[in-house]
Specification:
Oligomer: single chain
Helix content: 25-40%
Shape: globular
Structural class: alpha+beta
Number of domains: 1
Distance between the termini: 10 Å
């Protein structure tokens, strides 16, 4: 089955392909499908933003589309950055966003550094039926960036005794929010 992934984020495309391709799905990015749009994320939840992105690509393609919206929720920061994770406080680079969160958590104890990654995936079938699933990955925020794998907040997010950026792709995909959401997606496909 061919699925158009409604994103231009190369990291997300890579993760979806790594998880879904071995299961027989052909995952193509929206740009590979000839769709050149940037959808404004005006929703107030991960679910709303995932649906907005999927519908925009579906309206052009009229075929199977998946879109996700994901982000980091830090409990000590009232679940921020949340849906604003990719554009947190207007900072331009992942490193700048990581440093800002670390600075905001300065003096916060280990037990209060709890956080989670959240991912909502929207599937729109070729008949227009819309379904959403959600996955999370619980962990905590470290004290400095560690690791070079992954992207975004992976270098500061600790799962077990390592950051996601210290894990192999296979390890990360087996426990990540996106991996968990994709497991739920497979139940409805």
């Amino acid at each position: 089955m061919k699925l158009i992934l409604a994103t231009n984020n190369k990291g997300k495309v890579k993760e979806f392909k790594e998880i879904l391709s071995p299961l027989g799905f052909e995952v193509v990015s929206q740009s590979d499908a000839g769709i050149d749009i940037e959808v404004e994320e005006t929703g107030t939840t991960f679910e709303e933003n995932a649906v907005l992105k999927a519908k925009a690509v579906y309206d052009i393609s009229k075929t199977y589309v998946i879109a996700d919206d994901s982000g980091l929720e830090v409990d000590a920061l009232d679940k921020k950055p949340g849906i604003y994770s990719a554009r947190y406080e207007e900072l331009q680079t992942p490193h700048e966003r990581n440093v800002r969160i670390l600075d905001q958590l300065d003096g916060v104890s280990d037990e209060n550094r709890t956080a989670r990654f959240v991912c909502t995936i929207c599937l729109i079938r070729d008949n227009g039926k819309v379904q959403t699933v959600r996955g999370t990955c619980e962990g905590r925020i470290g004290y400095k960036e560690k690791g070079t794998n992954g992207f975004g907040y992976d270098p500061i997010f600790i799962y077990g005794d390592r950051t996601l950026a210290e894990m192999t792709d296979e390890e990360k995909n087996s426990i990540s929010h996106r991996g968990n959401a994709i497991k739920e997606l497979l139940k409805i496909i």
